[in-house]
Request: fold
Amino acid sequence: MSQPIPTRFIVCVDGTWFTPDGARSQEYHNNTNIYRLWASIKQGEVKDHSGQKFNQVKHYEAGIGSRDDIPTFERFQTGIFGAESIKQIMRIYEICCTRTSSPQDEVWLYGFSRGAYVVRAVAGLLHHMRALTSAGTKAFTEDYSKALRVYEVMQKLAQKRNTTLGPGQVHHFLEARSRPAPRIQFLGAFDTVKAVNDRCLYDITYNDSILNLRHALALNEDRKDFTPESMYPEFNQDKLLKRSFLQMWFLGAHIDIGGSAENDGLALYPLQWMLLESEAKGLVLEFDGSLAESAPIDNPLQVVFPTRKIRRKATHQWKCRAGNGVVVKIQDLRKVHDLPAYEQRYQIRINRHKAVYWKRSARTPFNGEGGLKGYCEHSPQGTVLHPSVYLLSLQDYCNFSLDQKHISYRKEIEALRPKMFCNEEELNLENWNLWGKLLQNLGLKKIKASEGSE
Reply:
């Protein structure tokens, strides 16, 4: 008797006030990166690169405070205090439990800003509490409240603090009320911001159940309330044999990681990276263009993986290797930034929020010695700078290359060039073009060219 095809359940949660078209009252006809990613995922039965069959099911959630029926003041409060995030964590956790049924099923979790905090918290619940069997029934709300109390007890037991429950009672609750959780195959976070008082209850770390984690961070965001929830795990070689962790810094402010700004070119780089990393771990991509007439959004896969027919110029995908062995793929996006068909939507600009009421505090990606926090010397894991950080600072890269004065930490970035992407061998390209010359000038290590997607 044939085994049922396992479910691959993909959850995409946007940031506070964000709908597919961006933040409320600031829609510029550019989609958010979370929605672009959701729209790029093939729905239904698929076969991934390993030959494994899955039923891919995708779910998109707009950010908290984005509903049409919320009064303006309530919407403002939701954004400032973020209390709705706690309810959203519960809702997403329940959906993950109801849409999967066995440890062979997978969950893929993506989020931007507070949405990234939500999916990281859900990953923590699946790791510690497993999947509650009452999900989808009237008993779930009560069971979930009890499970959170048990979860809090588990944390205290780990810290050897006094608790109202003993380990036997915790074991009995989990054995009676939960089942093994689905496999957390991938967690993709875009500039995680917490900004909510959760009493530190939720585990948003790189827990042992997360097989692959990718985190995109904004170098140029300076609002204190948007301090990112960065991750700097310790890397044990034995534990990481079948797991992977990459945290990548990109040029841009918070919205340049999440997408939907009026000039949205910088957002294409973290989106391209996340799609490439997801595809490498098995996600099957395909944009459904059947709604083109009624809902004419740009095909995200064509935008970030431009075909060779763009202005009859060839585009290439490159593999860049950092000093510690981290391999990053990147595809030439120069022509996308000023292609007339896109009506300047993807021009390059750092979209800092300039309102005077925000308290300012620059992010601190570097330590006191100028080293990059989280960089792993001995293993292809940890935190690195994306190659686009260097490319976008070049005058010849594109018509809208960034002025050096707009790039934070210029000295530290330049000093890290040998570790990030250093030269080891000469480029050998049959079709030498400006892209290749630019990359060679950067001294990128072990660069390999391949044709862009058709």
